[in-house]
Amino acid sequence: MIYTNWQTGYPESGTGYPDNTTGYCIQMNSEDKLRGKWSDISCEKKNLVVCQKLQTWSNLNIQNVLLNISRNPVPIGFIYVQLSGQPEPKAIWPQIEWKDITIDYAGLFFRAEGGNSSKFGDVQGENSPRIIEVYASYGDKRKQDHSKITPGGLSEAIYSGSDSGRDIILTFLASDGEVRPRNQAIRIWKRII
User: Fold this and answer.
1) Same domain, yes or no, for 120 and 193?
2) pLDDT value at position 18?
3) Sheet of 98-100: strands edge to edge?
4) Residue 109's domain spans which residues?
5) Nearest-CA neighbor of 129 among 150, 108, 147?
6) Residues 94 and 137 occupy one common structural domain
7) Residue 100 reports pLDDT greater than 70
8) So what's the pLDDT on residue 91?
């Protein structure tokens, strides 16, 4: 070795080099007075190592980073969804410029991915139940004047009036499909600067 920095009294072999024939290895000391000095030590000794990187930022650097974060709390491209009764993003973050991109999503119904949903990014096709056939027949007058229509099935018979003394009964066939919940319009904003 060209470079050596042995601690006084080491290596123990007295030759200036560790005696590898007796199973010795080299360690660098970390104690203040001996920091960086080498000593030879048994290769069977298990040392635990903890490293620490010294802080290279000044307090001023740290302060500037934290102030910058407080001025720019959301990244460029951040999407803010404004629900009814919530403030616009410029009321929350007045120092940031926002663009209303609601029109890009107008008319779409959002749903969570999975189950019967289309895959992420695809537009789900319309699939709500509709009355596809109406059957009229003659029969006995029903006392009820309303009926439950089940997707993919026939409704109960509904009395709709009489013709020449005979009661007219209607039955409705509904298509199979998904009933969409009531929904409310939202606004979508994007941070641009």
Assistant:
1) yes
2) 57
3) 79-82, 187-191, 98-100
4) 76-128+179-193
5) 150
6) no
7) yes
8) 94
* Contacts of residue 31, Cβ cutoff 8 Å, sequence gap at least 6: none
pLDDT the model gives residue 88: 95
* Distance between CA atoms of residues 155 and 147, nearest Å: 6
Q: How far apart (Å, rounded) are the C-alpha atoms in residues 113 and 110?
A: 9
In the chain the beta strands, taken as DSSP E runs, fall at: 24-28, 38-42, 79-82, 98-100, 131-139, 158-163, 166-174, 187-191
- Other beta carbons within 10 angstroms of residue 40's beta carbon come to 20
For residue 6, the 8-state DSSP code is B
User: pTM for this one?
Assistant: 0.41
* pLDDT tens per residue, range 70-92: 777 888 899 999 998 899 999 99
Instruction: Write the CB contacts of 113 (distance below 8 Å, at least 6 apart in sequence).
Output: 119, 120
* Least trusted range by pLDDT, from 35-49, 81-95, 100-114, 170-184: 170-184
Q: Are residues 165 and 84 in the same domain?
A: no
pLDDT one-digit tens code per residue, 115-139: 777 787 777 777 777 888 888 888 7
Please tell me the total count of domains within the chain. 2
Tokens read off for 69: 């974060």
CA dihedral 109, 114, 117, 119 (to 10 degrees): 90
Q: Which of 71, 65, 66, 64 is nearest to 191 (CA)?
A: 71
